[in-house]
Design goal:
about 20% helix; alpha+beta; about 160 residues; 9 strands; two-stranded parallel ribbon
Length: about 160
């Protein structure tokens, strides 16, 4: 299969539904990096779990770490990442020895989390849809709110999650 055919063609397209939800994506560049996959969400993707949807409901196929608190609060999401070794930071820039996550929230609570890649770009699982690479501010707006928390941890064995 040559470049521009099959899955490569899908990965290069824009996602108009996503751009409708996240208006900034119409103006800021992003790249689709996976086909749609409903098995996992942004929280699962941020910690490297591509097998289950992370949310605190008692439904088969869903997971939420014991002791993490409510998935409806920024504190609950913060605890999930603390359980995985992350600590709060104010620094949004790339630090080569650290991997970072950014929690987006609206007035209703946490809405999304993105993970920083070694390139300095951010990567996100968009609901039950595609994964994308984007600038941190590209997802800020009425749909996901704004970045309210940055957390970081030392890279594990010099490697980042899913890289």
């Amino acid at each position: 299969m040559g470049q521009g055919e099959g899955i490569f063609e899908v990965m290069d397209e824009r996602d108009l539904e996503l751009e409708e939800d996240c208006k900034s994506l119409k103006e800021l560049s992003y790249r689709i990096t996976s086909p749609r996959d409903p098995r996992y969400n942004c929280v699962a993707y941020a910690v490297g779990d591509l097998t289950q949807f992370w949310y605190d409901v008692n439904v088969r196929g869903y997971y939420w770490p014991p002791g993490a608190g409510s998935a409806d609060t920024v504190e609950g999401w913060t605890k999930v990442f603390e359980i995985h070794g992350y600590k709060e930071t104010e620094d949004r820039t790339l630090e080569l020895d650290y991997e970072k996550v950014a929690i987006y929230a609206s007035t209703d609570g946490p809405e999304h989390v993105a993970r920083q890649k070694a390139s300095g770009l951010w990567t996100s699982k968009m609901g039950k849809g595609v994964d994308i690479e984007h600038a941190l501010e590209a997802l800020e707006g009425t749909f996901y709110g704004k970045v309210v928390k940055i957390m970081k941890r030392k890279c594990q064995d010099g490697r980042r999650v899913l890289e």
